[in-house]
Amino acid sequence: MATLGPDDESFELKQDQELRFEVENAPIEIEVTSGLAEIFGVELVKSKKYLFPIGAKGAVFTWQGCAITMKNARKNMTYVSKDTTPMNYYMNVHIILEKQRDEAENDSKRGPITMIVGPQDVGKSTLCHILLNYAVRMPGLNRKPIFIDLDVGQGEISVPGTIGALVIERPATIEDGFSQLAPIVYNFGHLTPTANMDLYQHCVERLWKSVDERMNKDAKTNASGMIINTCGWIKGDGFKCLLACAKRLRVDNILVLDQERLYQELKRDLPKTTDVVLLHKSGGVVDRTRQYRSEARDKRIKEYFYGSRLKPFNPHSFDVKFGEVQIYKIGAPVLPDSCMPLGVTATDFLTKVVLVQPGPSLLHHLLAMSFATTEQEIIDTNIIGFVCVTNVDMQRQTISVLCLQARPLPCTKLILTDIQYMDSN
Ligand SMILES: Nc1ncnc2c1ncn2[C@@H]1O[C@H](COP(=O)(O)OP(=O)(O)OP(=O)(O)O)[C@@H](O)[C@H]1O
Ligand SMILES: [Mg+2]
Q1: Residue with CA at minimum distance from ligand 1 atom 10
Q2: Rounded distance from Cα 407 to ligand 1 centre (Å)
Q3: 9-84 CATH pick, 2.40.160.20, 2.40.30.170, 2.60.120.1030, 3.40.50.150
Q4: For residue 317, is it left (φ>0), alpha (ψ between -120 and 50) or beta?
Q5: Cα of 127 to ligand 1 centre, how many Å?
Q6: pLDDT tens string 161-213
Q7: What is the CA 224 to chain-centroid distance, rounded?
């Protein structure tokens, strides 16, 4: 064990306690020196040092009690919880889901489809992590649940502006989260579903079809079910959007975090076959400012292209001639009802695929890459990844792109998104 400096601290946690931290001023390093501890369902290895950069927020929780040392604890906000954590309730949910998975496996049926909802900053994403990590940590059961992230703002799969699905086969790592190998990603292209509700629901429907196919091919994944994360938009149209998603994804259980009103509304409007459960939020969950959210989105895009400290990527930069690609955007301005041609609805406009002339307005935008061959396929198929436009040269008629793979682009069809990233590397 390393010796403690003046800014470091050691903590003794009792059963069911957690050590919460917000890294504001200097990176912290956490080491479990005795006992067992976990962070959002990921077990910490004893004597291993875990580094948390500025901006990290979280909690080390213990079921049995443990001792921890933390470097730079005194330079940041750190404390041991006095209130009871909701972890026992979360564990009960996990036990019920495990029962449902066992039943599904025995009857060769689909396992529980569980959606987590609630207002902003109540710990929805955290609860998804806990439940997924607990599922894949079940000894000898080889669970392979699907994680679906419907949050286009603060989601975790691919880049902001997308919804996606991942098969989870092993616990997340503290440093890099869940392995993002072969995710199914649909491009929505905006940071909030309000930007184009019809397109959003279309993406959810297509995602469902892909996931359904994947589950039908793999009995283990099928029986393990799904854990679905959602965004914190729950009022008015946000509520309608949640209901529509719950229907499209054939949700069996809804876990409502911290809002009785939403719980009552969902119970009222969902079929009786859907189990709606109200759960407390943890006293440790921290509110995040607009600026924090925006920085978190930038960080996700940066990690998409450059990887993390432990797993860096080397993206490529190259020029693409205007003539080598077709760039599309999805959605055309909706005409007033009186001007609408017979048989055409607003949805037809909102999901219309429109060719875009390349120009300076593409600068800094992310473009989704698609193997689609027809315009209809552009909104119907999942995408293969993103490039970021780092320069537009009108004279040479080229765009420069940042891309995970070397020249040439793997496809010729690109989809313009609202998502922007300033590449400063
Ligand atoms: N028990 C806890 N102790 C300390 N921090 C926590 C705890 N639970 C969650 N957090 C932190 O609080 C923040 C918000 O949690 P989380 O992202 O899970 O909320 P959310 O409901 O998904 O928010 P959003 O609506 O933005 O998606 C995160 O930074 C998370 O790491
Ligand atoms: Mg979240």
Answers
A1: 285
A2: 39
A3: 2.60.120.1030
A4: beta
A5: 9
A6: 999 999 999 999 999 999 998 999 999 999 999 999 999 999 999 999 999 99
A7: 19
